[in-house]
UniProtKB/TrEMBL annotation:
EC top class named in words: hydrolase
The keyword tRNA-binding appears for this protein: yes
Source organism of the structure: freshwater metagenome
SUPFAM superfamilies in alphabetical order: Peptidyl-tRNA hydrolase-like (SSF53178)
Family note: Belongs to the PTH family.
HAMAP family noted in UniProt: Pept_tRNA_hydro_bact
Keywords: Hydrolase, RNA-binding, tRNA-binding
Protein name according to UniProt: peptidyl-tRNA hydrolase
E.C. number: 3.1.1.29
Family matches, as PROSITE patterns: PEPT_TRNA_HYDROL_1, PEPT_TRNA_HYDROL_2
Length: 191
């Protein structure tokens, strides 16, 4: 079986370091960890292929990043999944989550989109919410700042100091989901 691990985010340098792009950061970490290169795919995505695990138990994984904006993610990701014949139950979406404190990770399968445009687009395109999520906590803005503006800002100085470790744990959670399953991953990461 092949897994599709999609990092949600927006294309372009202006968004690359924003909170909304933490999904891209995690799949970039996985690509670096496994020393694989990104290449353009006809589905309007960037892809990289790798194996997680050892020997005959190794799982084939396609990493994906949409070249479209967050609210249009579903179409390219569905086209990529169709190309590799991957069903939604073998898709992991990594995304920013306002309702979880910065640095916390939650994993789950299915559920609502909680106002997240990337999840809304994925669910609409696939016609189901039955895919895994690695929810990367970014916290909520303090004060009257609009959440839509907050997610498109760079991380604060204090957050930047912890960001590398946080992204690494996000990559660890993806590996755990694929190798050990949801229940074990939730025990280890949903703390």
């Amino acid at each position: 079986m092949v897994w599709l691990v999609v990092g949600l985010g927006n294309p372009g340098d202006e968004y690359s370091s924003t909170r909304h792009n933490i999904g891209h950061m995690v799949v970039d970490e996985l690509a670096n960890r496994y020393r694989v290169k990104w290449s353009a795919h006809k589905s309007r995505t960037e892809v990289a292929a790798l194996k997680i695990g050892l020997g005959v138990d190794a799982e084939s994984v396609i990493l994906g990043k949409s070249k479209s904006y967050m609210n249009e993610t579903g179409g390219p990701v569905k086209a990529l999944a169709a190309f590799y014949k991957i069903e939604p139950e073998y898709i992991i979406a990594i995304h920013d989550e306002l309702d979880i404190p910065f640095g916390a990770i939650r994993t789950k399968i299915a559920g609502g989109d909680n106002g997240h445009n990337g999840l809304k687009s994925l669910t609409s395109s696939f016609g189901t919410a039955e895919y895994f999520r690695v929810r990367m906590g970014i916290g909520r803005p303090i004060g009257p700042q609009d959440p839509g503006d907050f997610v498109l800002k760079n991380f604060a100085s204090a957050e930047k100091k912890a960001l590398e470790e946080f992204i690494g744990r996000g990559a660890d959670a993806v590996e755990s989901l694929i190798s050990l399953g949801l229940e074990r991953t939730q025990q280890d990461f949903n703390i």
